[in-house]
Amino acid sequence: MRANFIFSEVWIGLRRNLTMTVAVIITVAVGMAMLGVGLMINSQVKLLQDYWYDKVEISAFLCSSGNAMPSCKGKGISPGQTTALKTEIEAMAGVESASFENQAQAYENFKANYGSNPALVQVARAEDMPESFRIKLKDPDNFAPIIDQVSKKPGVAQVIHQKDLIGKFFDFLEKLRSYALGVALVLVLAAALLIGNTVRLSAFNRRRETGIMRLVGASNLYIQLPFVMEGVIAGLIGGVFAAVMLIVTKVFIFESLTEYVAINNPIGWDDVAQHILLTMLIGVVICILASFVTLRRYLRV
Amino acid sequence: MIHFENVTKVYANQNRPALDHVSVDVDKGEFVFLVGPSGSGKSTFLRLILKEERPNSGAIHVAGKDLARLSNFKVPHLRRRIGCVFQDFRLLPNKNVYENVAFALEVIGKPRRFIRKVVPEVVELVGLEGKAHRMPDELSGGEQQRVAMARAFVNRPMILLADEPTGNIDPATSIGIMKVLDRINRTGTTVVMATHDAAIVDSMRKRVVELEDGKIVRDQSRGVYGQAY
């Protein structure tokens, strides 16, 4: 096997079909980037779920005077009622603990959570914060009966299960992921067809050479390898561009997620590296497959 | 060397067989003319030897190998032992004489040192010494065919197949081509040449196999082209 012979053939082939090669590179790059983004979102969701799901609690917000919630009937809750309510809640089956959060604590938490949004923190005052019970469950999945019971108690304005709040965010991320993966799928298909076309063009351009190669007994591998390598090299270059796009995505989107949403664990570089490796691998494998399938049709050996 | 036994070949979508129960034996070192009108099955005969086509029935042995049992994987190795020359030369226009001949060795993975040694020898054998760096379009038809013969012979094949090698060449130049083929034959290479050229066949006085409508109608050891033509 003469490597420089193969590579000169590959180089000639790529140069002859420059526009097709560029099209392949762009399609592979965008397709693989979308695939990578989908995978990154996937791991981000997993990370967030792991982080949040054992922290979720039920928040029971208490009535203050002037609260507009109908369950309060316009009256605030007295400190005595609050203590009574606490014992009642703690006595419920399935409740592990209930802690009271007064307005000052609520304000501190608010400031901590929205620290990246100074305008919001400035506008809010401690008096705006509702008092609440933070209820921890013995079994985080069995929340419905407790929400039901607590919300019926007098003096409780509203019961919120935090899972509902993060759940919506997760739903959004998952939609984003499906979208990215869907686009990736379409682009991968397009890339495969483009590679097929490029290989077909090269096979046609070089039919004299391949005819003679066949005649003098060059092995199938020797005849096919330059064509497959063309696809692989185009795929690899596309993969490198995809890797750059993924790194940019990680830096500018996943890192800055922390600024907009309460995410304090963006996916790490090791995850990103893994996804880049995986997407490049998939890209190259698709290129090889597409080349081989077309060669079978257009290059008689 | 080449052994056909009751070989029939019918191409798809055709009723008439291209070869019809053909049995023939070609020994090592023989020189055989394959004659007959167009469509008589000469090219099919050559393509079957190369395993470019498969027979519908019958057995073919080439260089001791049963082609029916030769896996596709091994067909390239069969072809390395068979050289081919065509009417239309089939040279690479962007490579010079030396590179065209060397190409045949490069693509079967021969080392460069070996190529540098044997290519000039073969170029000389076909009578193109001093023209190794000419491009094909700078050569006459006869010279181009010599390049093609050098390429076919450079790997020292056991068999050389020539499909109307003088078809595009004037009679005077054809004599030179035949001399080269004869020289190659004298090295012990079996030569099978399909041709329409009566003058050449008559002058060489070699074995003649005549095909007509896919059947062998004549097989003479020191034959001529035939009275009918």
TrEMBL record, chain A:
Q: Which residues cross the membrane?
A: 21-41, 179-199, 220-253, 273-295
ABC3 transporter permease C-terminal domain residues are 183-300
Q: Does the keyword Cell division apply?
A: yes
Q: Which InterPro entries match?
A: ABC3_permease_C (IPR003838), FtsX (IPR004513), FtsX_actino (IPR047929), FtsX_ECD (IPR040690)
Q: What is its main location?
A: membrane
The topology of this chain with respect to the membrane is: Multi-pass membrane protein
Subcellular location per UniProt equals:
Cell membrane
Report the domain of life of the source organism: Bacteria
**Record keywords:** Cell cycle, Cell division, Cell membrane, Membrane, Transmembrane, Transmembrane helix
Q: Which residues form the FtsX extracellular domain?
A: 56-159
Which family does the record claim for this protein? Belongs to the ABC-4 integral membrane protein family. FtsX subfamily.
Q: Cross-referenced NCBIfam families, in alphabetical order?
A: FtsX_actino (NF038346)
Note the subunit structure: Forms a membrane-associated complex with FtsE.
Entry function = Part of the ABC transporter FtsEX involved in cellular division.
What is the protein's given name? Cell division protein FtsX
Q: Which gene codes for it?
A: ftsX
Automatic annotation (TrEMBL), chain B:
Where found, per UniProt? Cell membrane
Is Cell membrane set as a keyword in this record? yes
| One of the GO BP terms on file | cell division
Give any GO molecular function from the UniProt entry.
ATP binding
Q: Report the residue ranges that make up the ABC transporter domain in this protein.
A: 2-228
Q: How does it sit in the membrane?
A: Peripheral membrane protein
Family, as annotated: Belongs to the ABC transporter superfamily.
Its job: Part of the ABC transporter FtsEX involved in cellular division.
Assembly description: Homodimer. Forms a membrane-associated complex with FtsX.
Q: What is this protein called?
A: Cell division ATP-binding protein FtsE
Q: Which organism is it from?
A: Nonomuraea longicatena
Q: Which gene name belongs to this protein?
A: ftsE
